[in-house]
Structure prediction request, 402 residues.
Amino acid sequence: MQFSSQVIEEATNALSSFPGIGKRTALRLVMHLIKRPEHEIVNIAGAILKLKTELHLCEECFNIADSETCDICTNTNRDSQTICVVEDFTDLMAIENTNQFLGTYFVLGGLIAPIDGIGPEQLNIEQLVSKVIKSEAKEIILALNTTVEGDTTLFYIAKILSPYKVKVSTISRGISVGAELEYADELTLGNSILNRIEYQY
Amino acid sequence: MQFSSQVIEEATNALSSFPGIGKRTALRLVMHLIKRPEHEIVNIAGAILKLKTELHLCEECFNIADSETCDICTNTNRDSQTICVVEDFTDLMAIENTNQFLGTYFVLGGLIAPIDGIGPEQLNIEQLVSKVIKSEAKEIILALNTTVEGDTTLFYIAKILSPYKVKVSTISRGISVGAELEYADELTLGNSILNRIEYQY
Prediction:
């Protein structure tokens, strides 16, 4: 692609560095931006810059926060002894959006993945153990992806936490709400029979 | 969608103002940005800001340029008496990328579209006439979309230019390279027979 303007070329290259955005889409976004009023452009650029200058990692749970401790950890209405362990901030947000969990979180910062060279020491597992001891946690809910990496991490954390008096649970796995059994994969369907739940009258 | 961080919410809202990018995709882009090094973030924000601070419209042809006159208009190797009229900058870029045109351009800034309230007076048509006179143009090539709006604009400009001694042409319309006749629409196929081209030995 040839550009007659270097400014447009730079902006297109910058936007095409985003995942899933190619040169053509980036150029379309740039053409959109050119037509917008100045304050909107300044807002967008400012919001992007703030991601580096104003974001912190919560000292308690490694959640992304605007201050040194996140809103969830400072909220005294939330149960600090029930801790939901998640891979990253997006998983935390997904659970928060269900409005079903009133405990606190702990962000691991990844999953154990030997193929990608990620071992337990690169994750916040040591800090999780300290937090379990310090907060006298009653239950640790492991809300991790149901992948090989997720299962490996789950197994590792459960083993590490076994000496402490803390209940370790995982989120339930089974057939999605609204799904048809006919199209469910065998592993999921098999597991959902083995881990069947007693009907509540 | 609930956000635990206002900075992330702002950035997500800013990015989801782009066409074709929803809240979820915007959040994915924000999460990508958070993981990138600082200089990359600064680059992206800077490139976006420059779109407002450093871009000009070429005084000669209304192309988007880094200076007051664009590279194409200042290039003395290009034929300033053969002018290709396009709707906007992206169409100009598309033609430039074919490497088949060595004349100059003129950007209309839109097409006549009464339904959207765009009349000839909102486009750079007066300036086109001045340019035709000033540059003693020999040929005006109208490279417009083959839509109702494109055809209306084409007809209007051809009529406006009729008093001047200038050849007016349009880009050829017909079957795309690589297309199968079977799947071509009737209008295009019909036109391609009416406007058939003599075989060149």
